[in-house]
Request: fold
Amino acid sequence: MPSRTPYIAANWKMHKTVAEAGEFVDALLPQIAATQSDVVICPPFTALTAVVERRYGTAVKVAAQNMHEEDSGAFTGEVSASMLVELDVEAVVLGHSERRQLFGETDEALARKVPAAIAAGLEPILCVGETEEARDGGQTEAVLERQLQADLAAVEAAGLGGVVIAYEPVWAIGTGRTATPEQAQEACAYIRDLLRRRGAAADAVRILYGGSVKPANAAELLSQPDIDGALVGGASLDPADFAKIVSAT
Ligand code: PEP
Reply:
């Protein structure tokens, strides 16, 4: 099995000004200098450049939290992949449950966004995950299959290797309720199996767990065989906490 470089991403959501983002990166970098993992920071659009400029010469990558699938046009408030690439942004979070639930992001839009990101040279971090109601109803696998099939419909098998998948059960995001390592492993293994069935080199794809990851629970989650990293929200806002999660890889 190919070894997969661990991947730890900080999703800041709508937090941190330019000044705060700069302070965070200055505090974080010395604490993660020895890491062999991929460390990715996902600031709001306004702080992308502040983070990009500070991370030159380091292993840190920068991701946006969303993008539009078209390259330009009459889409007020939106940002395209080429605009992100121009800033030296390397990745983009797509399909976060907050965007799906609060901003009406659909699987149809994601089916266009994922290939648009790949075509522009951005690494998509595609988020999928079930609601509590779906889990209680025994629908977790059906939801994951439906989302992955729809969102990756236009991506060739060869391109799937460049996609990072984040399994984020909606009931665990920002709630303090973390999936057990067994629940998270089971879902991530299922996602890998779905990718394999799509003809992807599934053993090479990084699959992350996200949902109330903290320094105290990171090591156990990250030790599961199919969990290759974490997408961290709340605990990524503090450089010391985030550095501890990076150190857990
Ligand atoms: C997230 O924003 O993707 C997330 C997992 O948030 P939290 O870690 O706060 O649950």
Observations:
- The two ends are 18 Å apart (CA to CA).
- Residues 11, 13, 168, 173-174, 210-213, 231-235 surround phosphoenolpyruvate (CB under 6 Å).
- The chain is about 40% helix and 15% strand.
- The chain has a mean pLDDT of 96.
